[in-house]
Amino acid sequence: MFRVLGFLTGGTSPKRSDVSKDDLHADTLGGADRALLELASQRKAKGITRELLKIHSRLARLSDFQPGKETNEIFSRLVSLCCEIHDTETVNKVFRDGMVQAILPPLRKMCSDAEYCLEDHWAKHITAAPSTDEAIGRLKSFTYYKNYEDLTRHEICAMLSAHPVLPGKVAFIGSGPLPLTSLCFLEALKKRALPGNRADSENVRYPANQSLIPEILNIDRDGAAVESASVMCAKLGSLGEGMKFQCAPAGGKALDLHGFDVVYIAALVGGSQNEKERLLHSVAAKMREGALIIMRTSWGLRSCLYPEIDMATEEMLQRVEICSVVHPYGSVVNSIIVARIRSRPKPNGDTNGSIPLITSFAC
């Protein structure tokens, strides 16, 4: 799932930080000017830090994270702050602050809990519609439905750069109660066109395996989320045809992913680098060689909302070959990693000469 709180972005593009032209040409400045720039960077970092701490304090005082005026306002401010574009040194100063380091884990947990509340609220609202047409109308009236289309379009384009044929079977780990990415992806597979396309679909059809009926398996460890999503998709009629569901933990033994062309891992599945590495190890072992994994990550201050993944570690590169990494700058919050499952080592240890290698970065 898009994994962004629906009440966060407010439908506007994030603003650029107040970086002056002098910041952009700092390499040409003298010592005094560099000192002024450093002072300006420190002031910006302190201001961001104060705001993050204030937001965390306000969230901690809420009795719950159900959608409402105050909850919406606080999270909207949080995402607006985190989506600002700042220079690397300013961002590093923020993340080096001890108080920021202390609040990041609980802040991300609050975001996750609030996102679940929002998705569950909308899933029930859609399910309660008196007809299929009304249910579809409610689904597409969700204020941030276009954000999901935009993110999915980014991901499909990155996926097609790695393998220029649309997949037949996709699995989404961490789909939640409102599987909007899966629905957008499924619609794209059925139409063989990018999500949100408004042109004549006959002119934008992508190659696909015609022998396969498009299918997306939505996987979540939360039984209530699986039930809520399943009931909602049944209400959507033909739009939900092809949506399958399974209640299982991300690395569970019951998962069989060998028959899937693409496996998604949601941004909030795994809360640390070590957890992400263990998860990738487990998921990759269940997939066939050459299949693709799409992982959602973050960059810059957006890492306050979602943990950033370092794909250049030995543990990661032993399992997958990185095809592309995409960092959107607009209202799409998540970054995208597309990776290919590596060949398994032969019993005698022969890997056909393959070595861990990052083949390309598309940023």
Number of strands: 7
Q: Per CATH, what is the topology of the largest domain?
A: Rossmann fold
Q: Assign the structural class, choosing from mainly alpha, mainly beta, alpha/beta, alpha+beta, or little secondary structure.
A: alpha/beta
Return residue spans where pLDDT drops below 50 for at least 5 consecutive residues.
1-14, 199-204, 351-363
The percent range for helix content is 40-55%
Rg of Cα set: 21 Å
The CATH fourth-level homologous superfamily of the largest domain: Vaccinia Virus protein VP39
3D shape: globular
Q: What is the level 1 CATH name of the largest domain?
A: Alpha Beta
Question: What's the CATH architecture name of the largest domain?
Answer: 3-Layer(aba) Sandwich
Strand order of the largest sheet: 3-2-1-4-5-7-6
Largest sheet, in brief, is: 7 strands, mixed
What does the secondary structure layout of this molecule look like, with pairings?
Blueprint lengths: L20 H4 L6 H30 L8 H14 L5 H9 L1 H30 L4 H10 L3 H18 L6 E5 L6 H12 L23 E6 L2 H13 L7 E5 L14 E4 L7 H13 L6 E6 L16 H6 E7 L8 E7 L22
Parallel strand pairs: 1-2, 1-4, 2-3, 4-5
Antiparallel strand pairs: 5-7, 6-7
Write structural notes for this entry.
The protein is α/β, with parallel strands linked by helices and 363 residues long. The protein has two domains: 21-121; 122-341, Vaccinia Virus protein VP39 (Rossmann fold), CATH 3.40.50. 44% of the residues lie in helices and 11% in strands. The protein contains eleven helices and seven strands. The chain has helices at residues 21-24, 31-60, 69-82, 88-96, 98-127, 132-141, 145-162, 180-191, 223-235, 273-285, 314-319, and strands at 169-173, 215-220, 243-247, 262-265, 292-297, 320-326, 335-341. It is globular.
